[in-house]
Amino acid sequence: MIDKIIDVLKSVKDKYLNMDIVSARVVRDIGFSDGVVYLTFRPTQYFCPLAIVLTTEIKKKLLEMDEVSDVNFKIEGYYDPERLQKSLAELTER
Amino acid sequence: MRQIVIISGKGGTGKTSIAAAVIHTASQQSKVVSADCDVDASDLHLILQPEIKQKNVFQAGFKAQIDKDRCTVCRECIKVCRFDAIFYKQNFCTIEPFLCEGCGLCQISCNEKAITIAQETAGEWYISDCRYGNMVHAMLYPGSENSGKLVTMVRHQAKLISEDTNAEYIIIDGPPGIGCPVIASITGTDLALAVIEPTVSGIHDFERIQKLCNHFKVKILVCINKYDINIDITHNIEDYCSKNNVPVVMKLAFSDKFLYSQIQNRSIIEFDNSYSSTFSLLWSNINYD
User: Fold this and answer.
1) Sequence-separated contacts (24+) of B264-272 with Cβ below 8 Å
2) CA B59 to CA A10: how far, in whole Å?
3) d(CA B194, CA B10)
4) How many CB atoms lie within 10 A of CB B34?
5) What's the distance, CA B237 to chain centroid?
6) How far is B128 from chain A (nearest CA, A)?
7) Which of A59, B69, B98, B232 gets the most CB atoms within 10 Å of its CB?
8) What is the four-CA torsion angle of A8, A13, A14, A17, rounded to 10 degrees?
9) How close does chain A come to B194, measured CA to CA in Å?
């Protein structure tokens, strides 16, 4: 399952670096339990302008997988992790 | 892992010489990754003499390209280009890549679909070994843009290497000015060491970089380089720093030894060991903060 999740994550590209987020190690510590994907998201820059866009794309793509019911992000190295978590929570509510 | 960036505001104040000496001093006590983020005019490699282990292409930005076989030379693209980047030359429409901004208006205007917008190769970045440990550096091609993105790539790779090798410090040789590459160099760092020279433009540009560091909440320390070339301005810098609670941690007198050490591809400490104690003291101050 982890391999399948990694393949999906590889389709998300950090357009700032022009690299996929797995190769760029923007996502790491990927886990899966009871339908929930756990991952650590650390953008390339402290004030990364793409952080919300990237996390949204990650969550949307993972939720498209039949086995995945939710995605749990741990945010590191970003100036406003609360705001990012809030925007991700709003995405689930929608 | 701590990230320390050496910046100046004004160019030519001695950033790279001091960065090399700081890297030399730090590497005697700790594991260090060096990052040259002055990608528009990188020169730390001249002193550190890295051996390139991995060379990578940096693609950023877009440029228009004309397929001459499809082009009917209607010149519609020349009319719409707001950057005067397309010329009629030797019976063809030709794009001047230095002027093209990759906006894509010419592509829209071309009924023959002869114009494509292709991603531009803007530079290269390298992972290297040098005598002080790992080094990440880059080269932006002449006239290319997106230096901030290339700085982000250099810093990101340096961060990954520091994690893989358990390096305690990333020491960044930053670019001059206050623009995009400088912002990309200082954000998220633990400390900025500003190298100032006592000239009118030196103090003016320092005031600007100090405000930039304040904006991004990066703590700043000051080194006055060549302080003896204008004692009055050196006093002005010290007064300014005192009023703004910016510690002056080092003052270096002008010496042509810096020039000769660079010619020999050596840090100033390797060239003249009497500088060792000065930079050890500076390193203690950096660590204290």
Assistant:
1) B265/B46, B265/B47, B265/B49, B266/B47, B267/B17, B267/B20, B267/B21, B267/B23, B267/B24, B267/B47, B268/B17, B268/B20, B268/B21, B269/B21, B269/B24, B269/B25, B270/B24
2) 19
3) 10
4) 30
5) 24
6) 18
7) A59
8) 130
9) 21
H runs (alpha helix) in chain B: 15-29, 44-48, 76-80, 105-109, 147-165, 180-186, 200-215, 231-243, 257-263, 268-271, 276-288
- The predicted complex's ipTM stands at 0.79
| C-alpha span between B123 and B282 (Å, rounded) | 34
Identify which of A17, A77, A79 has the shortest CB distance to residue B153.
A17
pLDDT in tens, B140-197: 998 887 788 899 999 999 999 999 999 999 999 999 999 899 999 999 899 999 999 9
Which tokens sit at B56? 């990578």
Other C-beta atoms closer than 10 Å to the C-beta of B231 total: 10
Q: How far is CA A15 from the centre of its chain?
A: 14
Q: Which residues, 6 or more positions from A7, have their beta carbon under 8 angstroms from its beta carbon?
A: none
Give the number of other CB atoms < 10 A from CB of residue B92.
11
Q: What is the pLDDT of residue B289?
A: 58
- Alpha carbon distance B151, B138 (integer Å): 8
Q: What is the Cα–Cα distance from B162 to B134, expressed in whole angstroms? A: 9
Which residue, chain included where needed, has tokens 């990608």? Answer: B39
Tokens of B127: 């992972």
B178: tokens are 């206050």
- Which of A13, A14, A15, A18 is the mutation pick for testing B, counting most B CBs within 10 A? A18
Kindly provide the residue ranges of all beta strands, DSSP E only, lying in B22-163, ordered along the sequence: 32-36, 51-66, 86-89, 92-95, 115-130, 133-140
For residue range A27-80, what is the model confidence (pLDDT) as tens digits? 999 999 999 999 999 998 888 888 999 999 999 999 999 999 889 999 998 888
As a whole number of angstroms, the distance between CA B236 and CA B152 comes to 35
Classify residue A62 as exposed, middle or buried by CB count within 10 Å of its CB (0-12, 13-18, 19+): buried
Counting residues of chain B whose pLDDT is more than 90, the rounded percentage is 83
